[in-house]
Amino acid sequence: MSHLVHMSGLTTTVPREYVHRAAVSEVLLTGWEADASAGSGEQDGFAVRAQWPRSHALFAPDGGYQDPMLLIESVRQVGSLLAHAEFGVPFGHQFLMSDMYFAAAPELFVADTAPTEIAMRTTCSDIVRRGGSLQGMRYDVTVVRDGRALANAGAAYRCTHPGVYRRLRGGRPTTATRDAPPAIDPALVGHASPRHVVLARPEPGAGNRWELRVDTAHPTYFDHPVDHVPGMVLLEAARQAALASTGLSDALLIGLKSDFTRYAEFDSPCWIEAHPQVDGATGHVRVRVCGVQQQEGVFTAALTLRPRPRS
User: Fold this and answer.
1) Please, which residues have CB within 8 angstroms of residue 164's CB and are 6 or more apart in sequence?
2) What is the reported pLDDT for 136?
3) Sheet holding 44-52, edge to edge
4) How confident is the model over 246-257, as pLDDT tens digits?
5) Cα–Cα distance, 82 to 156 (Å, whole number)
6) Burial class (CB within 10 angstroms; exposed 0-12, middle 13-18, buried 19+) of 195
7) Residue 3 has pLDDT above 60, yes or no
8) Between the CA atoms of 287, 291, 292 and 293, what dihedral angle is there, to the nearest 10 degrees?
9) Considering only CA atoms, which of 75, 61, 79 is closest in space to residue 18?
C-alpha cells in the first residue's frame, strides 16, 4: 500500500521519525510508493523520491558538484523509511547497518540552479521476519536523475527490539566521554570548518593514520542521542581519510563499498587507517580504509575517487 499523498504542485518531506532524524532540515526523502516493476517474487519494490538542497550546512556543493554524502544519507534514509512505513517496524527499534555501497556516474552529482531531484527505484530482498516482525533485510537501489539511471546503491541492516537492545547495550553513554583532539586542516578534507573534520591531527610519522574525532554536539553527525558512533560518521571519516591520504582534497567520491563489524564506542580511541592505490586504467584512485578500536576491526571501506581535472 502506498502511503504517499499525491497533491499536484506540492512537495514535502516524509515524516522525520521515519528516517531517524530529529531535524526536519536533515530529511532528504520527499515521498514513496509501491513499484511493482522494481520487485518480483519474494522481493518488494518501491519508488522513493529525494531532493538534495543547493546548500547544506555540512554537505555543501563544491566545484560544481553536490556532495556524494547526500547520496549515502539518502540510501540510509530509504532503509529506515521502508522499515517503518511498509514493513511495520515500530518506532524505538534499533537499526544496525551491516554494509552499504554505491557506484555512481559523476553526472549524478552535477549541481544545478535548482535542488537536485532524484528517484530511487528500490528492491527489498533477503527479508527476515520472526514472529511477524521484521528482523532485517537487504535493499538495492537504482538512482535516476532526469530519466537517466546514474548510480546503483544499496545496504543491509538488522532490527533490534528496544528491550533486547537495552539488555545488550544498557548503560552506554550518549555523549563522548573524551574531549575531541585538535582537527587536521579542514582544507585537506574538503571542508571549510574544523568542526566538520572527524580526523585528529596526527603525531609526526604516523603516516595515513588518524584518531577519529567524536563531537556528539555536532548538529548533523549527531542529530539525536545515540550510544555509539553512527555509521554515517564512520563513512565520512573514510571519505576524509581517502582525501587526506591522497592529497586530492577536491576529488569526487564516485564509489564506496563498506562493511560494519562492531560498534565504535565513545570511551576509547578509534583509529582510521588509509591505504591508497592509483588505478592506471581509469585514472581513478582507490583507497582502502579501516577503523580499529582496541585492536578490533570496526569497519572497512573501499572508496573510489575521481580526481578533478586540472587546467
Assistant:
1) none
2) 94
3) 29-34, 44-52, 116-130, 133-145, 148-160, 94-104, 252-260, 296-306, 285-293, 270-278, 209-211
4) 999 999 999 999
5) 12
6) middle
7) no
8) 160
9) 79
